[in-house]
Inverse folding.
């Protein structure tokens, strides 16, 4: 405590009584008044693995797949970031949509692994700082491009998808590891 006071000598240092109960008290207050919290700061960077165009400067040594009718060279397991560590998340607000494509004609269930990282900009989901939280599932009516957005501002991670050409959103569900 003396070191803190000497370092910040021009500030009043306040140590609340029973500081070890602060988290418990906060949880109880939140249970009674959930609207008292208007935003939160993301503890992790969240994303999903995705294909990204091959770039020899970045992806040297990684397996390359040829995707689509043009057989475009792509690299799998790129970290497609939806939420960044330290980002302020407004309660109830969804983040920007990301688009994904089913890989086969019979895909009616879209399943995406969800990864978290303590790094701001992970490049691949197989990096040491990334770990899989679980899998996100969407049941869709037809094979089409989908647009997915996340909301991690409350007490749970929520994801919705919109199928191209349709106006309704589909709630995703998680299978956690």
């Amino acid at each position: 405590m003396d070191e803190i006071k000497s370092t910040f000598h021009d500030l009043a240092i306040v140590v609340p009584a029973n500081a070890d109960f602060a988290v418990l008290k906060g949880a109880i207050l939140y249970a009674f008044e959930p609207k008292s919290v208007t935003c939160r700061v993301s503890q992790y960077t969240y994303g999903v693995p995705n294909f990204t165009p091959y770039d020899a400067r970045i992806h040297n040594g990684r397996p390359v797949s040829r995707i689509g009718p043009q057989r475009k060279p792509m690299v799998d397991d790129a970290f497609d970031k939806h939420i960044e560590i330290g980002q302020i998340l407004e309660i109830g607000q969804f983040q920007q949509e990301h688009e994904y494509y089913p890989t086969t004609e019979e895909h009616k269930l879209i399943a995406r692994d969800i990864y978290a990282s303590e790094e701001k900009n992970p490049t691949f989901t197989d990096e040491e700082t990334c770990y899989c939280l679980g899998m996100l599932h969407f049941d869709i009516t037809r094979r089409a491009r989908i647009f997915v957005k996340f909301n991690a501002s409350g007490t749970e991670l929520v994801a919705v998808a919109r199928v191209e050409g349709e106006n309704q959103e589909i709630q995703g569900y998680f299978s956690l590891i």
